[in-house]
Design goal:
three-stranded antiparallel beta sheet
């Protein structure tokens, strides 16, 4: 699996999640399945490894990358991200989109939001902005973050082939186990 990054869990003690996602050239890995064994959101310290995951003891492995001068060339990338709250307009657009999506999931059709923003697809906390009405985990799991996919070409800083979609991270109610999947 490709190491994507580490994400701190908010709280009084320092705990991290480590995200790994399978990358295969033919895009046949079932990375859209939160329990398919092709993604790992590992909580440390004190976390549990889900029973559907198998691992190996290696000192290093593949990490996040983007395409280089040609499509076949891969260039490792590394980021340190400083988080900041979204602008009021972006926060309002996200909230309107989520409220509209929630109404569709509840079987109530409403007109889509009317704003001139493309809602942010990468953020930590809050509520998830799903592409589909089917959610990959039960309500007991707590939304943690979502991460926009990308092809890692042109202006896109990394390659996470989510089929043009978004990846979603959730924590168990006791915050000792994670799930990650993508949807579009």
């Amino acid at each position: 699996m490709t190491f994507v990054g580490q994400f701190p869990i908010p709280g009084p003690e320092l705990r991290m999640t480590y995200l790994f996602v399978t990358h295969d050239e033919l895009a046949t890995a079932e990375t859209y399945d939160p329990e398919g064994g092709e993604n790992a959101l590992v909580v440390q310290p004190g976390g549990r490894i889900p029973p559907f995951l198998t691992g190996s003891a290696t000192a290093d492995g593949p990490s996040l990358w983007r395409h280089g001068a040609t499509w076949a060339e891969t260039v490792p990338v590394e980021f340190h991200v400083d988080l900041s709250p979204p602008s009021e307009a972006d926060a309002r657009a996200i909230d309107e989109e989520i409220t509209w999506d929630d109404s569709l999931r509840d079987g109530m059709y409403r007109d889509p939001p009317k704003h001139d923003r493309i809602p942010l697809r990468s953020y930590i906390g809050g509520r998830p902005l799903f592409w589909q009405t089917d959610v990959g985990v039960t309500d007991a799991w707590r939304f943690f973050f979502q991460l926009d996919g990308g092809e890692g070409w042109g202006d896109e800083p990394y390659s996470l082939n989510f089929g043009g979609g978004t990846g979603y991270a959730f924590l168990s109610p006791d915050e000792n186990e994670g799930r990650f999947y993508w949807d579009r």
